[in-house]
Amino acid sequence: MTWMRWAPAMEQALYDPDRGFYRRPEGPAGHFRTSVHASPRFARAVARLLLEVDAALGRPEELTLVDMGAGRGELLTGVLAELPGEVLARLRPYGVELAGRPAGLPSTALWTDRPPCGVTGLLFANEWLDNVPLDAGEVDEDGVLRYVEVDTATGAERLGGPVSAADAAWAGRWWPVGEPGDRVEFGGPRDAAWAGAVAGLERGLAVAVDYGHTAARRPRFGTYAGFRGGREVAPVPDGSCDVTAHVALDAVAAPALHSLWTTQREALRALGVSGERPPLALASTDPAGYLRALGGAGEGAELTDPSGLGGFGWLVQSVRMPPLGILERAADLESLPGWQTLGP
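^ thats the sequence. predicted structure below, dont judge the formating
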């Protein structure tokens, strides 16, 4: 058995150069379905969001799109296909990913393992933060918060030593625990990863889309999960499956920025994605058009299903630009009271 804390175990399982899950040739799409893979409507919505950002920024001479955790470039390719020529002529697109550059990516796209600095535009992170490795802690029978260790071969767990002062402070601020058996997933590495990515924006909008929770809804027993071949499996950090954990979206938010939170359902509806069926009368006047619209409605319904992809959280932060009214109207202010006053 090889026992590790969860953070190094995830790092090795996901990103090891020789056997990490995200280094495998089939890419994430070979194992699980994200919004990007569900429908081209998702890329179309991100393209519309980019156009809204472009307008709010006054159509800068160079506009940047940064796709964090770009996988095999599916979202980046889809967004570029939806943009008008005038915007493409000014656009500098980046795919940020540890895996090598995928075949077929448009030649204009830059491929890098770290977010760019000093750029203006849209930074979009779709299911990126849930794969940033992090440790877990659990309260023992004596009320001491200890790290959880995992066997990298089997996924079995045991309690290790007491947590550091920094992790204890993070838990006290964002995820208080006290009863024996209570668990916490220490989000400091994700907070730092998001802050580092957002710091690269000179002006623009940063959006994180992920499984998430906030202070009022912390899961008592944690959220580590695994995915392989389209199915949820035990989170064994041996490189054979994805290992993920939900994101404390309120903790992640970079301070001193105008911030809001909404669900994917509401965000995509604001951006023109709907699951509504076309009028039946269209079937008589334009049967082919009716079938296309019906298929699109099915895809829209999947993307906005509140019990599925539509339940994802969207964290939206503005950097030296006016707030976007199109998303402000979709914000869930009840779940995160006061977020509108976090920054200018």
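The two ends are 51 Å apart (CA to CA).
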